[in-house]
Amino acid sequence: KSGISKRLFTTLVLVLLPYSIHSFVVKPVKQTSLTSTARNPRLRPYSRLCASTLPPPSTTTNKKNHLNEETRREKTNSNDDDTPNIVLVAGFESFNRDLYVEAASDLPVHLTVFADTDIRIGPAVSEKETGINPVFAKALENADAFIGSLIFDYDDVLAVKSLLERVTGPRLIFESATELMEYNSVGTFNMKSSGDGPAGPPPAVKAIISKFSSGKEEDKITGYLKMLKVGPELLKFVPGEKAGDLRTWLESYRYWNQGGKNNVRAMMQIVAQRCSKNEEQSVQPLVLPELEVTPDIGVLHPLKTGPNRFFDSPASFVKWRLSADTASKADTLKFKLAPSDSPKVAILLYRKHVITEQRYINDLITMLEGQGILPIPIFINGVEAHTIVRDLLTSTHEIKGVADGKIVRDSSYQSSKAARVDAIVSTIGFPLVGGPAGSMEAGRNVHVAETLLRNMNVPYFIASPLLLQSIPQWKKDGVLGLQSVVLYSLPELDGAIDTVVLGGLVGDKIALVPERVRKLASRVSGWVSLRRTPPKDRRIAISIYGFPPNVGAVGTAALLDVPGSLDALLRRLDKEGYDVGSYATDADASGESLVAALATLSESGVIAKGADRMQDAVDAKIERAQEGDPNVAETLSKPGGGLGGARVRAIDVTRDELEKTLGRYMSKKVLRAWSEKERGPGVSSKGDFVVSGLEIGNVWITVQPLLGVEGDPMRLLFERDLTPHPQYCAAYEWTRKDEVDGGIGAQAVIHLGMHGTVEWLPGQPLGNDRQSWSDELLGDLPNIYVYAVNNPSESILAKRRGYGTLVSYNVPPYGRAGLYLELATLNELVTEYRSGMGTETEADAVRKQLRESIWSQCQRSGLLCDVPLQTDPNDVTSVVTDSDLPDTVSTECFDMWVGELSNYLVELQDRLFSSGLHTLGSSPTDENLASYLQAYFGDRLTIEEAAKIVTEWHKSVQSSRADSMNLISSFLAWIDSFDKSKDSSSSMAHGVQAPSLHDDASLIVSLLSQSTEELDSVINALDGGYVPALPGGDLLRDGPAVLPTGRNIHALDPYRMPSAGAWARGQLAANEILKQHRAANNGEYPETIAVTLWGLDAIKTRGESVAIVLALVGAEPVKEGTGRIVRFDLVPLEELSRPRIDVLASLSGIFRDSFANIVDLLDDMFERAASADEPVSMNFIKKHAVNLEEDGVERPAARLFSNPPGDYGSMVNEIVGTGDWDDPDSLGETWKGRNSFSYGRSESKDGSPSGTARPEVLDLLLKTTDRVVQEIDSVEYGMTDIQEYYANTGALKKAAENRKQVDPKTGKKKRVNVSVIEAFGGDSNSVPVREVEDVLRLEYRSKLLNPKWRDAMLDSGGGAYEISQRMTAMVGWAATADVDNFVFDQAADRYALDEEIARKLQKSNPEAFKNVVRRLLEAAGRGMWSTDDETLDKLRDLYSDADDLIEKGT
């Protein structure tokens, strides 16, 4: 009857036999069954219950609790003694509360239903102070039985856990946190942990489960569900008290799992019988209704009704759906069906939502049909999504792959039941393998998911209504907390794209937002349409970056040679059958020429003349270049300008046309923000918005519009609802608009390089809605975003807000700084001096001469700041500052100093830097491969050994590709085991042999050589295919786990931050910071330390910056049973042995939006610290909170500050870029104005929105800040490489200094130091902490001032701009910290005053060269740099000439 074989039945009975015998040995009892009558009151069999009329059960709706104590007491007192009280917590299923109440309405039970939001009325302070709702506590105190489902929030778990021991009757807890699952108990059956083992089902149950599994690890949970079907039936035949109790639990769970009113009612009957207080009723046989079984898997449709409304397979559904009968029925009911040739899309649905008849299911199917999508709606329990993809779905790609012998299907594939689909949409979220259960070890089975999705090679979407948030809350705050992990973080591990929030809760019901369903349909259709269009007919847009203007930024991207990559992409498109005109056959065509022409189209003078005159402007530039005019980029002198036949395609968009296209609502917002007088950039003299680019065949290349704040950066300080300017809107709208309607008609856009701006536009921080500008402007356009592999932080925004399907590109090869010019000379002097130290043969005159030469060279090089000479090592005031070395300096003292100088030169010589830029799809040269290896392995591998390994690898690839693949598999297994064993003793404990260093190196070479897959992935994405996922990160820190490139990169699970390694390093860093501060401040502790929390370093270091915050405060992470971090607990002061340091946490916008759970946990920690029963002398958080409270300031414990909600950046870099600032103090105030918005769970307590401005709290924190902490996460992005460091860390430093008192000794305000931690080394034993000025000097010497670095940049497309923007950053640092004079001296010599280099810069990028000279003059004018008049005159002449040349060129 159960559908299992006799052999399996016999096996299961044998498995259970010892379990039943054990129960006899422990406690002999009479055999029980459904009709037996045991006398033990704790072991009552099922009995018949007589229905009686009960008062309606009480319900609650929120934490304010509408179930008041008086009502509850009245109901309790009115109960008959024989009526059991049952408390049910619906957890994340609050939408089912009415169903549960209705199911028990005619039973003799007193049922009280709570949602998870009713459990507490305040935050949990500790395991003892859990903030429990007293009504909930009272209900459990009187409960005879407890039922709980889907309870995961840690504070809720603590609250429930603290009360469960009061319930002595049955406790049934389903699908909840492991800490609660162990409280499952029915009679003698329980799930308490035994010994050191984890809690969970008893061994017998686990043994049964194993018999129902396929043997594959990923199928274990589905085996568990199968076991539920037959387990209770089997236990009828197993004697013993324990078996009877186990059966009761399984039977209850079986009814609960099947769901629906009648099944839930039956479960209530079982529970009521087990806790009945009426002995007579308890011995009567209980007749249970037959289990109403809904298939574990089925397919449904609103047109299919009745008892047989579910289809058993996708194939049978498709046959029905495409039948004439179905079409006829739809016509009769006026149900709009999608055409038969519409995209067939598998929609994975929650089975429980189908069982409980959630209305949104039919609404979703109906709306998708109406939007031209043919849905195949498959419901599942949630854990078996991968089995659907594997066994019941196929695709055109998979069918062809199988036919060609390239794909081997799993033996479980059911050809007669499978349907071919064009895309997959999951409304469940979580990982594809395991669903909610798979999230317990996030990423564990991603290789299984990748294989399945690779074989299918169709887009994999996530789209779901929010089950934990109301629609108004989503509209106000975006997607929050656990919901963001379910819909974004976890599915992204599998390569999911284009997540769409379909709706949310309205009261206790799930509701859809129809416009969001239309968005899902349009994006799915966009991808499918791309695949169905032949390559030769596909119209593709390529967008390159060009901000900020007027500094040569057009055609640049971080670490990417954009001109070279553009050329490689166009030539690859030609090979794949795309129409790229004559570009690929033109030997003179180049990406450099295309970028130069696009730069011309971006000039304000050209834009002013309108679209019709733009081709003339490009032609004029080509003509002048061919005439030898030095004012024009030399690359345009080639025949045809080197454009490969590209022609200008530009459009003038009128204000009325834009308004009509945008629609009334969005156009009203734009036109209100940008009036007729202030239309923004990109406007012609006629007032039209100019959209322009170069067209080659069916490819249109454009420059992404300016953001519209350049020259007016202060605007964002006061307008939180800023919109993109009209031309920005026009550019994206006309890119998408059909050609027949006057648009470009692009079917996909490729954003080439990191990074653009569309994902940064105003809107929801997470979970786009109709008012999010990235959502509006991208529309249904597939967005293929080529992104740097080492930036998993900002790429999250591109993926989530910008609908980006990411394709990662590799970082450039690493180089060693070496020693050059004056540093090389100094090294020779030091070497000569040290070789003669201690000998008697060297003449005193020679030694003295060497001493003086070394001293003089150090003076000129600025090295005395880094290696000061102290006559007394214990006295910091004994530093020698004389220009000439005093004779009083002893030989012993000088020799010791020379040793320190030698060590510094060695460190400087070995500093790593990125050598040049990467070209998309290019494979590293052998020399580059060796440099990667040497950088990764450091002292363990010489450059010669690295080169040898590369050579041997080439030979091995030719001779044994199979062995190479085995090596990769072996190493990846070792990496996996090593990662899991970091918190234990050794990877060897897992039985996996670690490979040798040679094997490690060979694997890395193999993976690096696969960077050609970058272009492969772009092409596959353009085919509407699946791009496999990998974590983004840094080769130096993360090793081969981030390789190969060409992957859809993702970040880490935010619920596992900080990792064990990050926690260890964070504590070391915090201790070192405090040690250094106390050493410099007479042993005093700092009261406040500002710590910058950036998404990038948090992801790449797995939370080291968060760990630093915890360590400074004196807190530690707490994990629940699955390994998720759920709280930051305060360490007792007696254990901490020092004061708690207050922390101003400066959050980047990405950290704020991506790690909302961490923000809430930190906020909770600060609130508890501020109210802790501790003296203020030992708790600076409390001290400052008390001061603020006394002044009447709200939220005195607020410590997490960032930009306005949905907005990003301090705007300081924009101000520095324009030069529109008065003094350094103003930069600090700009930072403060942009970062006065407080975040955290406590913000919503009084109804205030998250992101409330609290300038008074920030002001006090800045006033007490003694130090700022900044982590650097990679070699590629140092303090001097990008603008963001000085614009945030430097400006924060300045904001704090603005609030310091003037020191009477110096006449200046007290200095606030910055501690910099270079976190890319990965050494867990030591964490070097340096002052910012020391790091700046190291970086300038190893990169900007280093001819080796300079020449590598100049040899790369876009390298001139990279040099230029570092000069701008140098001015920013000089304004907010200290930049030594020698840096400006040498920068002028290296770039402006070196005629050959200056000429090369100017020919490559005139605007960039002009900016280099401009920044040097600005530094001198602002008093940052002291130089002679002759140098300034030369620079003025250069600037004047460059300005004239650029004006003439325009």
How would you sum up this structure, described in words?
- The chain is globular.
- With 1450 residues, the chain is α/β, with parallel strands linked by helices.
- Residues 12-79, 711-720 and 974-993 have low confidence and may be disordered.
- Helix 17 (396-403) links the parallel strand 10 (393-394) and strand 11.
- Helix 1 (6-26) packs antiparallel against helix 7.
- The strands form ten sheets. The chain has an eight-stranded mixed sheet with strand order 33-32-31-30-27-34-37-38, with helices on both faces. Strands 7-9-8-12-13-14-15 form a seven-stranded mixed sheet, with helices on both faces.
- The chain is 45% helix and 12% strand.
Gross geometry: globular
Structural class determined from secondary elements: alpha/beta
Helix content: 40-55%
Residues in β-strands, percent:
5-15%
> What Rg is obtained from the alpha carbons, in whole angstroms?
34 Å
Largest sheet: 8 strands, mixed
**Straight-line N-to-C gap:** 86 Å
Adjacency order of strands in the biggest sheet: 33-32-31-30-27-34-37-38
Uncertain runs are: 12-79, 711-720, 974-993
Mean pLDDT, to the nearest integer, reads 85
Number of strands: 38
SS field, number of helical segments: 59
